[in-house]
Design goal:
The protein has three helices and no strands. The protein starts with a helix and ends with a helix. The protein has one domain. It is mostly helical.
Length: 68
């Protein structure tokens, strides 16, 4: 909780103006602007796989319960 309080002003004053100035709507657009389209797609693939793995863990816990 303390980290959120400490990081929020940094995000508000440093990163949000940059995002507004570049007129982008996602971190993936920034990756494409800064690097290339391939890295953008790799970022999307990575995030999608992380979300899928998280979903599988939650699903497994719901079906089988917590085993020690």
């Amino acid at each position: 909780m303390i980290i959120i309080v400490l990081v929020s002003p940094i995000m508000a004053f440093l990163f949000l103006p940059l995002i507004q100035r570049l007129s982008i709507t996602s971190a993936y657009e920034y990756l494409e602007l800064r690097f290339n389209r391939t890295l953008r797609y790799l970022g999307i693939l990575y995030e999608s796989s992380q979300a899928q793995m998280t979903f599988q863990v939650i699903r497994r816990e719901a079906i089988f319960g917590h085993e020690n």
